[in-house]
Design a protein that fits this description.
Blueprint lengths: L5 H9 L1 H7 L2 H4 L3 H7 L1 H14 L7 E2 L11 H14 L3 E9 L2 E11 L2 E11 L14 H13 L4 E9 L11 H4 E5 L5 H19 L21 H4 L25 H9 L5 H4 L6 H8 L3 E2 L1 H9 L5 E10 L13 E13 L2 E8 L8 H11 L5 E4 L3 H13 L1 H12 L1 E3 L2 H4 L3 E2 L9 H8 L17 H7 L8 H33 L1
Parallel strand pairs: 1-2, 4-5, 8-11, 11-12
Antiparallel strand pairs: 2-3, 3-4, 5-6, 7-13, 8-9, 9-10
Helix pairs in contact: 1-2, 1-7, 1-9, 2-9, 7-9, 14-21, 16-17, 19-21
Bound molecules: iron/sulfur cluster (SF4).
């Protein structure tokens, strides 16, 4: 019999069909590896954070054991846990418990008072980007399941805590583990979820064994708490494109949004294809999308182009990000720029290209990036980025870190213009954009048959995530492989700014 694990239980809480499909890869064609890969970045960060969290409590005994195939050796872990309970161990990492086919391993279990306190480690931060305390509701079913299994196994649970990263921690010298983490008492928050576990576990166990696929229609749970990996499978019967492909955001200025809840409303009312949506109250961009017409607002585009002044500097950063503050003065998950590409247009058709890629030796790349950037971009020129908040944030962080360069970096920041604006505002739309205004959608829509502008023709690095993943790995590569990877990174970033140049040229052409 397959044990019901905490990830099974949380899958079930999101949607019974999600659990059923996750243990039957042959039905959806999505293998356990695919499911794992969709979560890979999260898991990788989770592993790194989990290892560090073990240092929170000195003397922690880790009982985890893996089989030759990499899966946990549950039998040995259960036995090791029982031994630790008998031995008087103070803190156990990966303490394993099994009750009536329900299995869990607790990240950290600490002897407190007359019993044991659960510490569930998550690689998230305690606060959002605006510094506001986050809600942790999505973790509660998982924590409730563990608490229930422990109690069924006769453990007195005296505390229930969530351990996550302290977003305000700024590394000064050696990593301070006590400061890096925030410990949040979720004992009272978890009570509602805890009351549901005795009813839900038999239902989830039934789903694990039943032959028939559960009938579950699309609903808000497809996106909550996580975007479901089986979305393609569950929407395979819908026309393509469908209401779910409509652009979600608005142009601002009081325009209508079209978020997931709105899409579901239309879906449940039987308005599924673009044709079904014509005549419905929609935002500017959404209307153009469902009507599938090319739209060019020449006045809007001219207004945007008139706001630019020569020479133009097209800038794009590549960054890496670590859950753990890796360098001096860095916070958890801070974006660390290691590369940029810069195309300079003195006029249409006359371009220079500059680029910078930091040494890949594991040292902090930021000083080199900041100094070279100040050399390459004068303080008083017009700088273009595509979706500029990202580039602006990088510049602001660099300016805070290097006060001697701050004035120059902030001038670059303040002179920045977003090339996304003509598309997001609906000045220029072609149906091939499919309602997405990312550069990866706009470029092929405007230049469908140009192999030089096709990211698929690049080697190894085709997007920002791949660049972010591969840069820190270069230091472990052979010289030859490292040189090839650095070249691939340079060509990828160059295409990002060359794409911006071509898009800008196209705007000039259509505005005539
Ligand atoms: S896509 Fe929605 S209905 Fe399908 S398994 Fe996922 S959550 Fe359930």
């Amino acid at each position: 019999m397959v044990n019901l694990s905490k990830s099974h239980y949380t899958s079930f809480c999101q949607c019974p069909k999600n659990l059923w499909l996750s243990v039957r890869p042959q039905v959806s064609g999505i293998s356990p590896d695919d499911v794992k890969n969709s979560l890979e970045a999260r898991l990788e960060k989770g592993k790194e954070v989990g290892e560090l969290a073990k240092q929170l409590f000195p003397g922690t005994v880790d009982v985890s054991v893996k089989k030759a195939n990499g899966n946990p050796d549950i039998g040995t872990m259960l036995a090791n846990t029982q031994q630790c309970l008998k031995d008087g161990t103070k803190v156990i990492a990966e303490a394993a418990f099994l009750h009536d086919g329900c299995y869990c391993a607790v990240d950290l279990l600490r002897r407190e008072g007359d019993g044991w306190a659960i510490y569930e480690v998550k690689s998230t931060t305690d606060k959002d980007d605006k510094g506001k305390q986050k809600k942790f509701d999505k973790y509660l079913p998982d924590i409730a399941f563990q608490t229930w299994v422990l109690r069924q196994c006769g453990i007195t649970v005296t505390g229930i805590n969530l351990v996550c990263l302290n977003r305000d921690y700024v590394r000064q010298g050696k990593l301070d583990i006590q400061q890096l983490f925030s410990i949040i008492d979720v004992c009272s928050d978890v009570q509602n979820e805890l009351a549901k576990v005795p009813t839900l576990t038999p239902n989830a166990q039934q789903i694990l064994v039943q032959q028939q696929e559960p009938i579950v229609d699309l609903s808000e749970h497809c996106n909550k708490p996580y975007p479901c990996v089986f979305w393609e499978y569950c929407t395979r019967h819908l026309p393509k494109p469908s209401v779910f492909d409509v652009y979600g955001s608005s142009t601002g200025k009081g325009d209508l949004t079209f978020h997931f809840d709105k899409k579901l409303e239309h879906y449940h009312a039987g308005r599924v294809s673009y044709k079904d949506l014509i005549g419905q109250p929609l935002g500017i961009v959404q209307r153009m999308q469902v009507e599938r017409k090319t739209h060019i607002d020449r006045n809007g585009i001219r207004k945007f182009l008139d706001g630019l002044s020569y020479p133009l500097y097209f800038l794009d950063f590549e960054t890496m990000q670590s859950a753990v503050a890796e360098f001096e003065g860095v916070k958890p998950y801070q974006q660390i720029p290691f590369q940029y590409s810069l195309h300079i247009a003195k006029r249409p058709g006359k371009y220079d290209h500059l680029e910078y890629l930091a040494e890949s030796d594991g040292t902090d790349p930021r000083r080199g990036v900041a100094e070279q950037l100040c050399d390459d971009i004068p303080a008083n020129v017009c700088v273009l980025a595509y979706n500029m908040p990202f580039e602006k944030n990088c510049l602001k962080d660099l300016a805070c870190t290097f006060p001697d360069l701050s004035r120059h970096l902030m001038r670059i920041h303040d002179n920045m213009v977003d090339l996304l604006v003509p598309f997001r505002e609906g000045y220029y739309y072609v149906p091939a954009m499919g309602g997405s205004f990312s550069i990866k959608s706009v470029l092929p829509a405007l230049f469908p048959n140009d192999p030089k502008l096709d990211y698929r023709n690049l080697k190894d690095v085709h997007n920002g995530s791949e660049a972010m993943d591969i840069f820190p790995k270069i230091r472990t590569m052979s010289r030859r492989e490292a040189a090839r990877t650095r070249e691939n990174l340079l060509r990828y970033c160059e295409l990002d700014t060359w794409a911006m140049v071509k898009i800008w040229e196209k705007l000039i052409e259509v505005a005539r």
